[in-house]
Amino acid sequence: MKTLVFIALAAIGVQAGSRAADAPMRQDRDTVVKAVDNRFQDLFPDYPVEILGVTQMVYIKGYGAVLSGELNLAPGSNITPFHPTISKQDVERTRTKKAERIPALREAMQQLLISSAKSLTNVPDNEEVVLGVSLFYWHWEDRAGLPDQIVMHAPKKMLLAASKAPIPGLKVDEF
Question: What φ, ψ does residue 142 adopt, rounded to 5°?
Answer without folding.
Answer: -90, 105
